[in-house]
Write a structure and sequence with these properties.
Number of helices: 10
CATH class of the largest domain: Alpha Beta
Strand content: 5-15%
Structural class: alpha/beta
CATH superfamily of the largest domain: SPOUT methyltransferase, trefoil knot domain
Radius of gyration: 29 Å
Distance between the termini: 70 Å
CATH topology of the largest domain: Alpha/beta knot
Strand order of the largest sheet: 3-2-1-6-4-7-5
Order of helices and strands: EHEHHEHEEHEHEHHHH
Oligomer: single chain
């Protein structure tokens, strides 16, 4: 799914450079709606346009609000971002934990993602408007992200979560795998790699290795072809001496 119903809300953004960089990050990830609450500069400030690089339309269509309440009025889910923990911020979720719920709501209705001012982040009063509060698990020694970086990380995670997994491959059947394992055991005994009196222990290890590979039928045929070639080589070894 796209991120068209995701609204990025910047609360009191301080500078045009960050606003422009946020617009570019949104465009990269397919988000289109930008809301600015009491910005210090207009969205079409020259410095914002320079930083937007190909995302001027996001700035042109950005909505400016005098209050956070107005900016989120039509949203069914409001998600705040913070890096600080405290008694009033105890229900923090990681972005990854919240991503599926955010996308589920965004498939039907508007979702607002709130980002605070660069110098202080969202206040407790602003976070009180949020049904969910998320954090990006950055290094605790330097966990403060640039505004545009934070927006990019959040939107990237949502976009990555929204992309359906690639179709699963057609895997080899148990019959095909067991035939391969029997064949491999026979050949490895012939070349002396396995002890003919107790091949099971090493074969169990080999089974685990190949099980992790999730072989498909073609790969099993290739491996058995190698085993057949090994058998041919054994039969045609030149006599010693």
């Amino acid at each position: 799914m796209s991120l068209e119903r995701i609204c990025v809300v910047l609360v009191e953004p301080r500078g045009p450079i960050n606003v422009g960089a946020v617009a570019r990050a949104m465009k990269n990830m397919g988000a289109k709606e930008l809301a600015l609450v009491k910005p210090r500069c207009p969205p079409l400030h020259p410095h914002a346009l320079v930083m937007a690089v190909g995302a001027k339309d996001v700035l042109v269509e950005a909505q400016v609000y005098e209050s956070l309440r107005e900016a989120i009025a039509s949203s069914a889910l409001v998600v705040g971002t913070t890096r600080r923990r405290g008694k009033r911020r105890r229900d923090l979720l990681t972005l990854r934990e919240a991503a599926e719920e955010i996308l589920a709501v965004a498939s039907r209705q508007r979702v607002s993602l709130l980002f605070g001012p660069e110098d202080r982040g969202l206040s407790n009063r602003e976070l009180a408007f949020c049904q969910r509060v998320i954090t990006i698990p950055a290094d605790p020694e330097h966990g403060s992200l640039n505004l545009a970086q934070a927006v990019m990380v959040v939107l990237y995670e949502l976009r990555a979560t929204s992309i359906p997994p690639s179709p699963s491959r057609h895997l080899a059947t148990s019959r095909e795998l067991e035939g391969f394992y029997r064949h491999m055991e026979e050949v490895l005994v012939k070349i002396g790699f396995l002890d003919s009196r107790n091949p099971e222990r090493m074969m169990a290890e080999l089974r685990r290795i190949f099980s992790r590979a999730e072989l498909d039928p073609r790969e099993v045929r290739i491996l058995r072809g190698i085993l057949h070639q090994m058998e041919w080589a054994i039969r045609n070894l030149p006599p010693k001496g």
